[in-house]
């Protein structure tokens, strides 16, 4: 019984390590998004950290339009980055976690 418990604890610790490694790797995965007309471009990491924002000069003339563009494009980029992040972390947990009854929240 204790051998099984120790094995499960070791597997959980291994999974936690793989999750941390995946999170670090996701800092290097870049997600690009831009407005339909290409006037605003943003790049995030898959961990949803903003890396770059490129704004066309024409948007600098209209503060309200720029704000609208930023909201729309940033939200799209965050959605993309979140999808990549969740898919990667889900793959690690499904691959690594032991089949523990009642712990299907990782599936």
From TrEMBL:
Protein location: Cytoplasm, Nucleoid
Residue ranges that the Swiss-Prot or TrEMBL entry lists as coiled coil: 5-32
Name the major location: cytoplasm
**Gene Ontology terms, MF aspect:** DNA binding
Which keywords are on file for this protein?
A: Coiled coil, Cytoplasm, DNA-binding
GO terms for CC? bacterial nucleoid; cytosol
UniProt key word Cytoplasm: yes
A Pfam family this chain is assigned to = YbaB_DNA_bd
Family matches, as InterPro entries: YbaB-like_sf (IPR036894), YbaB/EbfC (IPR004401)
Report the leader peptide range. Answer: none
Q: How does it assemble?
A: Homodimer.
Provide the function of this protein.
Binds to DNA and alters its conformation. May be involved in regulation of gene expression, nucleoid organization and DNA protection.
HAMAP family membership: DNA_YbaB_EbfC
Member of which family? Belongs to the YbaB/EbfC family.
Q: Which PANTHER family match?
A: NUCLEOID-ASSOCIATED PROTEIN YBAB (PTHR33449)
Protein name, per record: Nucleoid-associated protein DVK85_11550
Q: Which organism is it from?
A: Flavobacterium arcticum
Upper lineage is: Bacteria, Pseudomonadati, Bacteroidota, Flavobacteriia, Flavobacteriales
């Amino acid at each position: 019984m204790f051998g099984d418990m120790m094995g499960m604890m070791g597997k959980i610790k291994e999974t936690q390590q793989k999750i941390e490694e995946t999170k670090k790797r996701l800092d290097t995965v870049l997600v690009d998004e831009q407005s339909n007309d290409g006037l605003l471009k943003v790049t995030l990491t898959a961990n949803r950290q903003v890396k770059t924002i490129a704004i066309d000069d024409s948007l600098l003339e209209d503060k309200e339009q720029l704000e609208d563009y930023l909201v729309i494009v940033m939200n799209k980029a965050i959605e993309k980055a979140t999808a990549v992040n969740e898919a990667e972390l889900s793959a690690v947990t499904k691959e690594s976690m032991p089949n523990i009854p009642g712990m299907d929240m990782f599936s």
